[in-house]
């Protein structure tokens, strides 16, 4: 039990949390470049962790990997230029929501004048819309 507590204390130091944040930012910046996968991003940024302690370097690598996964979806959604196969699926599903066409389709009223209960911020039942 003491070993688990010591590991949690090492993981929650300000150095390791700061390294995770730096890794997230660096991973997002490099992950947004089309063609760079998350694995390639971590491989490019590994030399920055050589001189760090293991309990700081490994969380930084995890932050880089997770940040690059998110960064690859940025270009897939906004520009429709996926860099990885996973981002390609995300880009196809999300580009319509981020484009002007998607915003117009969301504003279009329901043909019967009834909106879905989850499509509006109101917490109660079905609402009726005026036909435009």
Number of strands: 2
How would you state the average pLDDT, rounded?
76
Radius of gyration: 22 Å
Give the H and E element order.
HHHHHHEE
Summed up, the helix count is: 6
Please indicate the percent range of residues in DSSP E strands (runs of 2 or more).
under 5%
Strand order of the largest sheet: 1-2
Structural class: mainly alpha
Helix content: 55-70%
- Biggest sheet record: 2 strands, antiparallel
What shape does the CA trace take?
elongated
Instruction: Enumerate the spans where pLDDT stays under 50 for 5 or more consecutive residues.
Output: none
3D architecture notes:
Helix content is 63%, strand content 3%. The protein has 132 residues and is mainly alpha-helical. Helix 2 (14-31) crosses helix 3 (38-45), helix 2 (14-31) packs parallel to helix 4 (54-78) and helix 4 crosses helix 5 (85-98).
